[in-house]
UniProtKB/TrEMBL annotation:
Main location per the UniProt record: membrane
InterPro entries to which the protein is assigned, alphabetical: AAA+_ATPase, ABC_transporter-like_ATP-bd, ABC_transporter-like_CS, P-loop_NTPase, Siderophore_ABC-ATPase
The protein, known as: ABC transporter ATP-binding protein
Gene3D superfamilies reported in the protein's UniProt record: P-loop containing nucleotide triphosphate hydrolases (3.40.50.300)
Subcellular localization(s) per the UniProt record: Cell membrane
Membrane topology: Peripheral membrane protein
Residue intervals of the ABC transporter domain: 4-240
GO molecular function: ATP binding
UniProt key word Manganese: no
SMART domains in the record: AAA
Domain of life: Bacteria
Length: 274
């Protein structure tokens, strides 16, 4: 089953074509990660699938419905998105920010409810932001601020969550913490997770479905063990590497050596990732 699907999708910025007649399917209940070099179009594709960027032509289908036919609130009940580098008004507290995630469920008949309160508190606890709930967002460190935004996304309670570089500004420990959280949401609640990540090794570790983008087109898509090859890394990132097996997770581990520094090849024995 697919959560999101594009059909003959064409995206433009002004007169510049970003994608032409693109067909892509995002599997339901899985973690999909977009990878690719800077400027390849992965964030643009994510924004378009979330209806933040209007396509020139083509169709995007969300849970079986043409996304263009759905109201903004209906889309927000089915899909939440955390864009890259979001900003909050000065003086807004973490609690106030996270409460914004419940906006799609509010109307003149239904005001703030116990369910809303429960979802907000749970999102704060999951992201370990409950003790910072009364602090202003602009007083937080970059990593804390990112976790606050992720909490708002979780409070929205949607079956599909889309995130553009969610580990930005986070140190390694908090990167793993955030990705573990998203993995748990996928495993325990079958939420569909779609992310843009720069770290290929973390993408291999957490993704069920890796989408490699090159020159504003899909270069390859599938399981990391099948998709991630030395040729792909060279073609997509213009980077020489050797791929070995992660000793803990048995996923592909990219060992880069670039162009300037040559490794002692004899000490790096190739490992076939099965």
């Amino acid at each position: 089953m697919t959560a999101i699907q594009s059909k003959d999708l064409s995206l433009y910025y002004g007169d510049t074509c970003i994608f032409k007649d693109l067909d892509i399917s995002i599997p339901k209940g899985k973690i999909t990660v977009f990878i690719g070099s800077n400027g390849c179009g992965k964030s643009t594709l994510l924004r378009s699938l979330a209806r933040l960027l209007k396509p020139k032509s083509g169709q995007i289908v969300l849970d079986g419905s043409d996304i263009g036919s759905l109201s903004t609130k209906e889309v927000a009940r089915r899909m939440s998105i955390l864009p890259q580098g979001p900003s909050a008004p000065e003086g807004l507290t973490v609690l106030q920010l996270v409460k914004q995630g419940r906006y799609p469920y509010q109307n003149w008949l239904q005001q703030w409810s116990l369910e809303d309160e429960t979802m907000v508190r749970r999102a704060l606890e999951l992201t370990h932001m409950d003790e910072m709930a009364e602090r202003t967002v602009d007083s937080l460190s970059g990593g804390q601020r990112q976790r606050a935004w992720i909490a708002m996304t979780l409070a929205q309670g949607t079956p599909t969550i889309m995130l553009d570089e969610p580990t930005t500004y986070l140190d390694l420990a908090h990167q793993i913490e955030v990705l573990d959280l998203l993995y748990d949401l996928n495993q325990q609640e079958q939420r569909t997770i779609v992310m843009v990540l720069h770290d290929i090794n973390l993408a291999c570790r957490y993704a069920h479905n890796v989408v490699a983008i090159k020159d504003r087109a899909i270069y390859a898509q599938g399981q990391a063990n099948t998709v991630i090859t030395e040729k792909l890394i060279l073609d997509v990132f213009d980077l020489h590497c050797q791929i070995i097996k992660d000793p803990l997770f048995q996923t592909p581990l990219v060992v880069p050596f670039g162009k300037g520094i040559k490794p002692v090849i004899e000490t790096l024995q190739p490992v076939t990732v099965s």
